[in-house]
Write a structure and sequence with these properties.
The protein contains eleven helices and nine strands. The protein is an alpha+beta fold. It folds into two domains: 90 residues; 234 residues, BirA Bifunctional Protein, domain 2, CATH 3.30.930. Strands 1-4-5-9-8-7-6 form a seven-stranded mixed β-sheet, with helices on both faces. It has a two-stranded antiparallel sheet with strand order 2-3.
Length: 349
Amino acid sequence: MSLKDDLKDIRDQGLDDINKSTDLKSLNNIRVHLLGKKGPITSALRGIKELPVEKRPEVGSYANEIRDDLTKAIVEQRDNLANAQLNKRLAAEKIDVSLPGRSVPQGQPHVIQQIIDEVVDLFLGMGYQVLTGPEVETDHYNFEMMNLPKDHPARDMQDTFYITNEILMRTQTSPMQARTLEKHDFSKGPLKMISPGIVYRRDTDDPTHSHQFHQVEGLVIDKHITMADLKGTLLTMAHQIFGDKFNVRLRPSYFPFTEPSVEVDITCFNCMGKGCDVCKHTGWIEVLGAGMVHPNVLNMAGVDSKQYGGFAFGLGPDRFAMLKYGVDDIRDFYLDDVRFLNQFSKRGI
C-alpha cells in the first residue's frame, strides 16, 4: 500500500472518529491524536523522504489537504457539540413565564413617620398649612426671636449643639414660626401653620428621652384668639390620635415664648395612671407644651400684639408613638429592627 493510500485511510478513520465524538473532551483527544507531533499524519509525512523526488510535492500537498480536512471537521464538530451543550443547559434552566412571580415585601413608613403623617392630615383638615425649616439654625431665630435673649436662664433647659457662637443645631421647630410671622400678610387672613421636623438636644439618656427626636409645632395668630381655642384644638388632637381610653390634663407651666403656658399630659400607657418607672411614678406622661403666644414674640416679628394674638403648641411624635402603641423605651424606635417596626404596619406586612 502506498503512502498516499495510508493518508487516505487516516483521513477516513479520523473523520469517522470525529463524527462519533459525543463531548468536547473526547473530541480534543481525537484532535491531539490526529494532528499532534506523534500523530499518524506527522509519522506519514516523515516517510516522504523515502519517495522519489518527483513524487514528494504531490504527496506533501495531499497530506496538507488531509490535515486541513481533519482540522475543519474538528472545528465544525466542536461548534456542534458546544451548541448542543448550551441548548441542553438552556432547556434545564428555562423559566416558565406563565407562573406567577414571587411577591416582594413592600416597605412602609417608619412608625414615627406614621404618627407625623396622622398629625399632619388632622391639621390639614383643620385648615393649617405645613411648613418646614432648616435643621442648622441661627441663634437669632432659635432663641432670640422666641423671647430667649442670650442671658436668659431658660436656655439652660435646652442644652444645645453649637457649631459656632451663632450657628447651632435647632433645639425646636419654633424658628419656622418666627420666620413665617415675619412674612405673613394678615390682611389676607389669619396664620394657621404646623412645622414638623427633627430637633437636637443634649438630653438625658433614659427610656423617654433622646438627643435627637421629632417635633411638630403649631401656631395660630388672628384677632380674638383665646385659651378656649387652644384647649379645644388640643383635645381634638388628643382624642383623634389616642381615642378615649386615655385621660388628658392641662397644668400650668412656663415657656418664655407663651404666656400663659400649659403642659399637656396623657395617662401613662404602661401603668394606666397607677405610677411606674416609665412615667416616673406620676401616672402621667408629658406629650406637649402649649400656651398663648407672648406679645414679645409677636412684636419682634413685626406683628402688632395689641391687635393680634394666638396660641402655639409643640408635640413630640416619638412620645405619641410610645403612648399609642405601648412602647416603653423611645430608643427602640431607632434600632432599625424590622421585626420591631413591622408590628406597627398599617398594611399587615
